[in-house]
Queue: 4 jobs
Job 1
Amino acid sequence: MQPIRNLAFVINAQKSGANELASGLMEIAKASGIRISHTDQFPIPNGFLKDFDACCVIGGDGTLLGVVRESAREQVPIIGVNRGSLGFLTTFSADEARAQFPSLLAGEFRIAKRSLLGCSSCEGHQHDLALNDVLIKDERPSGLVRLEVFADDELVTEYVCDGLIFSTPTGSTAYNLSAGGPLIHPNADVIAMTPICPHTLSNRSIIFRGDVKLRVVNRSESSRLLVAMDGQRNLVTCENSPIEISVSKLELPLAQRLDYSHFSVMRAKLKWSGGYTESGSR
């Protein structure tokens, strides 16, 4: 990759050690003659990433999710540094960031393009993007919903459930996984749909091809739907207007170290061990 000459920082100041880490990384960037700008505002200001070569996000995965739309629109790669918990997306630890930052600034990283979901409601007047998932449920807590799902205008089925999760491969390790959905390699060109607590026990996750056009129709009487994008923003819905979901033409550029291994991350984050063994046994 080309060396970074203009670098933005997005800092979640509520995360322990985030400000101190950011100060150290910014000093490294300044010493290399790089133009920097930083913010701790959420959501980040519109246009904040314009004309930058990359954005260093310091926080957790939730912090990174808050930068996705701006990054995708401006095609500015995100360097995620984890100061949260799991860190599936913010793959650089604080120690790795400190040690590898000069190399990153010199362009020693690769770009992974992650698919995004586009979601529209109110006949296309409301639209948003999600990196992980789109959740559709009753806006009332614990309310059941009756939802019809169509794939390319063909009826899939009608669900009576607590909600539906539409997930990208990247988001398959998030809410989708907690609801019993499958793990999907991030390079797969698919959408996963996972029902939450369906009344029909044979209702399980469905994997759709990436170019499918999905439509969800609310068949619940006297109920309004909540549509949550990445668990951070709610899309406005209109009565008698279906919700449409498809893979966006935009992709998220995510910076990864050159030796990044997806399955190594899975083993570490999900604590895969190959099974229990007695101490000292083979």
Job 2
Amino acid sequence: MQDSYFKHLLKRLSHRSRKKKFGLLHAIFHPRPEDRVLDIGASGEVFLRYAFEDVYPYPERIVAGGYELREVSSARHYYPRPRYAVFDGCALPFPDKSFDLVFSNAVIEHVLGEARQARFAQEIMRVGKSWFVTTPNYWYPFESHYHLPFIQFLPRPLRREYNRLFGTHIPKGTVQELSLLSGRQLRRLFPTSRIARVRVTFWPETLVAYYVDPGRQIAPAGLRRISFA
């Protein structure tokens, strides 16, 4: 009973967080029917029924994809209106500034190694005129992949043992390799971006690096302030 309540609570908080992130995206970007959009990390297996493709008003203008054929195929099954491609986010097969917006939700922390993370960020900035990149906050005490508190601060052998004893989400006794980022690290990867801190609990759970093409209409100042709360 307690376990099911805990999972229900996490699901509810995740939904609130995604709703707030999507609200921020719409407030600052103002989607237009002619915009061409790239979604890096599309999946029909993760965040099903509240993915970017569920809320973006012009899904036929999305090119969605990622590295795993299985996840891209599942996304195509559940969301047939966008176009799909399999690609490496660190070597995107698109020309410079070919998308009005590049969206990526909770992908960059799975790109391992400083050099590859930097390349991932550079590719987003290369192909996008604007971008909106989210990632869990390294300093938030509850780690969202393991569903365990403080585990990201432990050395690898202790993470394995901690997960063996208390893990409920990642298979017990295993370690999921992650490259979680702080706000400062995210700013270094996206130096021309603003960094928003999205909070639905007591501390910002999510960081967002975003940049809006100066040629687009800018959201009113009041909307920008509300979105950071």
Job 3
Amino acid sequence: MRRKKTWRRLALSLATAGLAYLGASYLAARRLARRLISAQGLVPSTARREEMLAELRRAVSIVVDHRHAGSPRAPAALAAIFASPGQPEGRATILFLHGKGGCSAEWRPDALRAVQLGYNVLVPDLRGHRPSEGEFVTYGFLEREDLARLLETARDRFGIDPGRLGIHACSAGCTVALEFAANRPGIGALWLESPYADPLEMARHYLSVATGAPWWLLAMTTRLAVSRAAAKVRRELHVTDPTAGLGRIDPVAALSRVEGRLCLVHGERDGLVPPRFAARLESALPANAIVWKVAGAGHCHHDDEAEKVVAEEYQRRWSDFFVANLPPQLEGSP
């Protein structure tokens, strides 16, 4: 009899603990769902847009703080920086895509290097990241349409050729880059830094780092938070298909539809997007792709990023990659 009571108490305790876990997971998911689709990053960016504009203006003749409309699905006024050494119509363009919580100004050294090599540069602040408008981020679902509009307005205003494009992306910006580049002709080179293959795995890790809770404790919370975030995006966009919106974001599937030459770069000490998160992307790469794992380096746009840890090698590899796969100027251009 005593043994039965002990088992009943144990079962009751387990049931109570399970219900408490479910309740806590649900409450946490409500709050964390907003975090997943906000423009808030793990570490605030300290880069300043005004300083980037000023430095570009000292380097080249054409620098414009360009504004354009975003996707008609969720109208927003979006901002981007355009710069060119001159005669943009005769030059290839490199598009720079920052990560969640980042900004255009983080690309200052890369944009300067690009214009010095003879490229045009387009450096947007992705939707939700000020000064761009937007109530939430969608990891490529809306952003690919935003970027298509950016290219159209840059073609009309500056004369650039959207069919001669390269992309350099960081972190979640790589997911945006792959969604945008999938099935799009004219993209000659993509340099993807700190990418990840599985959005759910990345969401669980992101919430673990953001909250300090172990990842295994957040398994249910993450699924609930992702589900709530996806549902909110569908409601805001008046989409009824449960697989649409965030549910369609799949970096590996998008990679299979990219035509340009690819280079994946990952710091071996990256704690924000651990290198193992890119394993499935690496396995899906075409034979001519490049994978560069940088010893001693961390996450892009952080103090220990590859660009700072191995500065000379990074600049050489970056320049060689883009010039070889996306010549800055057409043969015979002035």
Job 4
Amino acid sequence: MSKEELRYTLWQCEICEDEFLTDSKARHDMVWCECKKTAVDAEEGYYRFIGKPKLICEGNIKPKQR
């Protein structure tokens, strides 16, 4: 995967309201919120969710967390 194809996604846990960032370069890498009740695995072709993630933004440029 080239650098141009890398997809960043900013999520928020609807339980603890923690914001966390995923990218599409790491395979099978669940990124967890602070309360450990929500996680997202952002693969190149799909997302895998646990808990209640809310999509904040996504794109090829790394977003700044609030």
